[in-house]
Amino acid sequence: MTNPQNRSFGVFKPVGHVVISLPDAAAVDRTETALATLGLPPGAVRRYSDREMLRQIDDDIANASPIAAVGQEMNLVLAHRALAERGYHWLVVHANSDEQARAIADAARAHGAERAQHYGHFIIEELIDRPGDIPQVAESPDRGLDAQTPSGKEAEVAEVKKAVGG
Fold this sequence. Notes:
Layout: E1 7-8, E2 11-12, E3 17-22, H1 25-36, E4 45-48, H2 50-63, H3 73-85, E5 89-94, H4 98-109, E6 115-119, E7 124-126, H5 157-163
Antiparallel strand pairs: 1-2, 3-5, 3-6, 4-5, 6-7
């Protein structure tokens, strides 16, 4: 993830990729198998453990430009950190189009993905709607990323998921 082309103002922003969070390594294995059926080119899929993601995020936080807080990049980094602290693993998948990004997210959702975000130049789109999501409210650098939980915090996602039987 340290490729400078995947960074914006010092934080992780892999434009043209879908970033997928999965609850454990077994879910990553299953998702990789499913993605192989989509005809992705060699090298299109990279996997990261929870520990690798935490190291990357800590580096991002230490080296982020203050400008990174203007958009949602820093909020996403912090949301990813909350999931990585819970043991989530990651896939970063190159997508050539919006349609391919949706197919990637659909395959990941079928294997337990919590999040699948498609990074564009100007917009980062969440591709997985979860049962029990509440309406999204305004996000800002001060409020952070709205995780669509009662508190609006990503750390609460696992508790909400358990409560709705997910």
